[in-house]
Fold this sequence. Notes:
It is a single chain. By secondary structure, the protein is mainly beta. The chain has a single domain, classed as Maltoporin, Chain A. Strand 17 and strand 18 form a beta hairpin. The longest helix has 16 residues, at 2-17. It is globular.
Amino acid sequence: MKRNKFLLATLAFVASTAIFAQELEENNSLDEVVLVGNRNNNRTVVNSAVPVDVIQVEELIQQAPQLTLNDILNYVIPSFNSVRQSSSDGTEHIDPVTLRGMGPDQVLVLINGKRRHTTSLVNYQNTVGNGSVGTDLGAIPISAIKNIEVLRDGAAAQYGSDAIAGVINIVLKNTPGGDASLTYGQTSKGDGETYNFNGSYGAKLGENGSIVFSAVVSERKKTTRTGDHNLDIYGDNFAYDFADDPAGARANDDDIIAANGLSRKDFRFQIGDAQISNQQFFVNAETELADQLELYTFGGVSLRQGKGFGFRRLPSEVPDTSKTIYPNGFQAVLNSNVNDYSNSTGLRYKTLNHWNIDLSNTFGFNEFKYNVDNTVNYSLGTDSPTSFYAGKHSFLQNTVNLDFSKKINSNINIAFGGEYRYEKYQIEAGEEGSYIDGGSQSFVGFSPDNAVKGDRHSVAAYADLGLQFGNFTADIAGRFENYSDFGNTINGKLALRYEYAKGYSVRGAVSTGFRAPSLQQKYFSNSYTDLYVNDDGTQQLVTKGIIRNASNIAQNVIGLDKLKEEQSINYSLGLTFRPTSKLFITLDGYFIKVDDRIVLTSDITDPVLEENGVDAARIFSNAIDTETKGIDLVVSYQTRWGKGNFNANLSANVNETKIVNYHFPSSLSVDYNQYFGPDQVNIIESLSPKVKGTLNLGYSIDRFNFLVRNTYFGQVTKDGYPWGSVQEHSGKVVTDASIGYNLTKNVNLTIGANNIFNIYPDKQVYENSYYGVFQYAPVQMGVTGAYYFARLNFNF
């Protein structure tokens, strides 16, 4: 912590000798007042000392093809990435998100400035964000959102753990009025149908208050993108390559199926987007209780039902004891119920000497329940059920905040406060048949050995100072936190902005940060089924497991250190240009160094693990240090064009993350590739696009509005280690387009498409494709292809 204390002292000294600036006075749509970045509510995007994007969601709901918050941000913020995953257990039902090439758990999400809880789900299926625990943006009804503020800078000194890469603040609607939309769409393959209703209604509450109700009810059908478009279980590779099956054990699968009077198409391998149903309800209310005293409350419930598919078990893979149940093999179905509840309630009071006091309590709870259908437990033979309750996991977070702020004069704004947070994580075992003797195929249930209850609490104090003199502005922040399970941390931030000519400025920031290991990373353990490569090169499905870092095996046999916090330092330097009131340009570079980054190891094999019934194990560890560097560009232009209004937005991100150091246990007896192999390095360094850009063009005239958007997803690399090869997937351009027409003053009809030219990632090489089944890897923009939609929008 010496580095943190030294930095805080340095920041205070620099701030005390600096000269500071005046706000820009122009007032148009580019001057959005933002809540993130500092606690000065007079700050706008134009004069912010750090980069902030403000996304007007209400306009996108009407015009854009995307229907979820993840998808919307994926196509309008280049440094933001979210890709749907296939056959990846719970990760199929909650899409992990990343910002600036960092992990999902290094992005903090706020709602109305209050911390949002994370999910209870650990991503462990070697997808983007492997080993991380993110926030489920899809649990927030899109109809409840007024706008979204994306702070692209480290902010742990202001908001605490998880804000290493940046902050996403979701601002809810708070004005009277109503709106609704009905959307229907499907892919060019005729699958992936979507039905979506979203709406909100607001009314006055008391003299100066309001209450807004919002709801979303939606369903997305599954898509299937297997080896060919006829949906055969192997496509052109239905007969196994004997090089991969030298014993020829599976060569007769086709004959077995035909002998039962069936064909290949009766055994379609379902690989693609999972089927998802959502029911979401939110409320946002505020009212004046007395003079200068205001009560506010917001939050709601999200109920999600997901249906995903595992690897298919072929006739040759089903033992004789279970052949009477599935003579032709089977493909298991994973059904999940994801329930999410949240509420923030608080009091805001303004004293006679203009101090603003905010006391609030924020509660969040996320629960995942698993049921496996169309499966079997081989050890139970012909008596095995074909459906199992496989258990659940849950996460609870409760945060109490007391904040004070005051604008001392036109040059000085101060804020300080404290926070108490309690967190609890729990795993509940499934029914016995789901986990005993190998458990239910495809998804092994949680056993009593996995069942756990773990909790912790933390306290924090922060101070935030905003200064403004002449042509300089500065924001200075410091934060102290104490966690009951790993101790203290102190972090600081200094952000400066200098306007060297009217409308032209240079800005920069330096900050330290941290991320506490999540309770999920501390306590999660399970067994699961995956592909494994034998010494002779053959592949088989085996049982693997994630064991707890604090377990005897992890600590005393493998020799891992106990989990500790990640520590980071973040530098940024940027330029802003506003040559006219219609044109705004920002260019920001950044460098983020993270020490002791928490990751999930590769598959570790050891005789001790085999004695415990696990072929291979993975463990959470502070295994690596990383460095991330990149550049963000944003160009925004709007004008009158003819009799209509034209707007153009160009934004791009270039970033690169490299592992600069490994922390291998001195007592490690296995090969380094088992500890953190090429597959895991690939996920950190090259599985997300290093280049991404978006050009958005909009035009409205009379009753018509038009949208054309091109998004470039750069090259990614997929490493199939240990049973595949390294493959580069070239960059792709995805085009969205829509046309809207105002039928009446309050009714609009919009038609359009996402990925109108039906662009897919490059086809996978055979050895990465699970015998040709996974034709496309779910990288870059996913594997859905073209999606067409029609939407009716109403205002009332």
